[in-house]
Specification:
Elements (H helix, E strand, L loop, with lengths): L3 H9 L6 H5 L7 H18 L1 H15 L5 H14 L5 H15 L5 H21 L1
Helix pairs in contact: 1-3, 3-4, 3-5, 4-5, 5-6, 5-7, 6-7
């Protein structure tokens, strides 16, 4: 397996063509690997588009939202907020909003803050579309 710092550098430079290679790191129990996967998804999602984001990335992000490490959860909230303009409104309402509502009840104040910010973004996007 490629070291995470090399993989992220390759991803930034556009040299990583296999998303599975990145997503495989989710199984590593160390929270920094999860953080790297979340960062990688944040870089790949705008380029890959809605279909791949929904089929490959959203399940990983949803699973990460159940992590017990607050830093992972606040980064999940930030990532979910960045996915709002990428995915369809139905996905936002069906999947993303529910994860953010769950994160908004987290015991950590920072997680709740970023989840609340993302929920506001959903509401603002809905108002703008009306």
């Amino acid at each position: 397996m490629v070291p995470t710092y090399t993989l992220l550098a390759d991803l930034r430079a556009g040299r990583c063509s296999n998303t599975a290679e990145v997503l495989d790191m989710v199984t590593n129990p160390h929270y920094l690997h999860m953080m790297m996967v979340l960062r990688a998804i944040s870089l790949m999602a705008p380029v890959m588009g809605s279909e791949i984001t929904c089929s490959n990335f959203l399940l990983v992000v949803a699973e990460a939202s159940k992590d017990r490490v607050p830093n992972v959860n606040l980064n999940v909230a930030k990532l979910l907020q960045s996915l709002i303009p990428i995915v369809d409104h139905s996905v936002v309402e069906k999947t993303i909003r529910q994860r953010l509502v769950d994160l908004n009840e987290d015991p950590d104040v920072d997680v709740r803050y970023f989840a609340n910010q993302a929920l506001r973004s959903i509401d603002d996007a809905a108002v703008a579309q009306s």
